[in-house]
Amino acid sequence: MQPLFEIDSAFRLLCPTQLICRLIFAFAMYIIIYGLYNIGLTKGLVQVFEPLVTGSLTNASILIGGLVSSMSTLVNNHPALMIGTTTLTEMNLDSLTLKIAYLASVIGSDIGSLILPIGTLASLIWMNLVRKAKVKISWMDYVKVTIVITPPVLLFTLILLALWVGWIFPMH
């Protein structure tokens, strides 16, 4: 039994060029993040995380980096970073803690997104290229490697960030 239409042809009808597809994706992503902001997601995150990160560079680095990393794993690195950024802009943190939290959110979104292939568009493209080259790597094979490597690398990087910033600005 043939489907009524091919997904590929329907997709091409909606997105005739890659540029249009990317613009539609980016616009939709901003709308979703703005909607989450409007329903209070960031306010809830601020209430939970602000007391935990206030006054501690290490806590700011590890907790904010871990939060954005977790979101990156589940949704994608760009929306997660946008949620993290809007959350941080609502926090009443001192200048140095805010800066380290921003850096930690970028690190978390970039490293944490590697745990699942859906974390970054680059991972999805890579999985597709590997499949087209007839190399068999399942999502489970991918996750078996990344789940072992990514969390320790992320934790090490976030701790190093806190130590480095604490070393540069010792009066904090």
TrEMBL record:
State where the protein is found. Cell membrane
Keywords (alphabetical) are: Arsenical resistance, Cell membrane, Membrane, Transmembrane, Transmembrane helix
Which Gene Ontology cellular component terms are annotated?
plasma membrane
Name the Pfam families for this protein: ArsB (PF02040)
Listed under GO biological process in this entry are:
response to arsenic-containing substance
InterPro entries from the UniProt entry? Arsenical_pump_ArsB
Lipid bilayer topology: Multi-pass membrane protein
Domain of life the protein comes from:
Bacteria
Question: GO: which molecular function terms?
Answer: arsenite transmembrane transporter activity
Q: Which family does it belong to?
A: Belongs to the ArsB family.
* Alphabetical list of PANTHER family matching this protein: ARSENICAL PUMP MEMBRANE PROTEIN-RELATED, TRANSPORTER ARSB-RELATED
- The identity of this protein, by name, is Arsenite efflux membrane protein ArsB
> Can you name the source organism?
Paenibacillus algorifonticola
